[in-house]
Amino acid sequence: MKIGDLVSVIDEDLKGKILTILGNQVKIEDEHGFTYNFSKDKLTIIDSDLYQNSPIVRKKETSKIVSKKHNRAPLKLDLHFNFLVKNPSDYDAFERLIIQKEKLLETIDFCRKNHIKNLLIIHGIGDGVLQRMVYDVLEGLTNVEYDSDGFFYHQSGNVEVKFL
Could you give all domains of the chain from N- to C-terminal order, each with its CATH number? Predict the structure, then answer.
């Protein structure tokens, strides 16, 4: 450090020019003409040429890692009875509906335990009995979102459920 050098005060927002140096004490003047006294260890020299000859290194930007779990397509549950049992003709209508409801509840429980966010329930179009059962089950659940009043409520054979 010498008289005339530009310095900055460590841990303060203050810059100035050195006026005098007496031992360990340095007197500086800021841009507004105010003078301050600091010890040498509280000052650092402002060197505008310090980084002049340093090469600029451009680092490659890394892409953000996105969890594969959230990029997945929704889990699909097809409630058509021929996909659930081997001999569908061995069951009457009431037994079919009970088996389909158990499979639905089992899959919803699986999604919650494994933190799966989306479930696509395929119920088919038919007479609407299975569709009504699916919507009745969904109405009784908490922390789920689904389209219950959608435009294609009776025309589409599926409903997408989002777990919150």
Answer: 6-45 (2.30.30), 69-163 (3.30.1370.110)
